[in-house]
Specification:
single chain, alpha/beta, 33% strand, elongated, 15 strands
Amino acid sequence: MSKTIQCIIIDDEVIAREILENHLQKIEKIKIIASCKNAIEAYNVLENNTIDLIFLDINMPEISGLAFAKSIPKNVKIIFTTAYREYAIEGFDLQAVDYLLKPISFERLYQAIHKFFNETRLKKIAPIPVLEEQQNFMFVRADRKMVKVNFNEIKYIESTGDYIKIVLENGSVVTRETIGNIEAKLPTRNFLRTHRSYIISLAHVVSFTNEHIELKNKSIPISRSYKSSVLNKLESL
């Protein structure tokens, strides 16, 4: 049997730590020993526990993640987490297992865990499905903070250049994300990609034709490349 991997999370943002905790609890053989808000707390944990893997934020006050990474034993593996792409090169220079850009989806984290298992030559974890029934929300970065978006409040999602607009029953959230990353966070049984720029909530469909889907007060196009899968899905409901 493969050993249980003991890990710690280090991030000064409470929500960022909670997102990682929620994701990691879905993965067999991963045990969270501590969730620390700064490097000083983490040093104390390392002194008293055997740690295999650290999820480490880079941009932290007092002691940065990069400085912390340079000060710990080489046998402790690191997966960097940050909201800033410009740190990626320096992070990989420190031989990090992976570099995750916030907001972190379960799928992207899962890929990083597999990289860790491959690099340490441990037995791979078995494929684990996203537990859609257990998670009915996602977090996205908007207005310099992580914002919780409940799936049942989403009407549709629209890609507008470099930004994604998530239209809710009451209001909207704009985030600098790709529509592909957002799509990966959504439960497939409740949402449908209709176009390279649109994802709809099936619960809000009023009617449809071969070219458009009508939501309340909004008509969503069906592109040629998505038409077959979209119509098959809608006609099976």
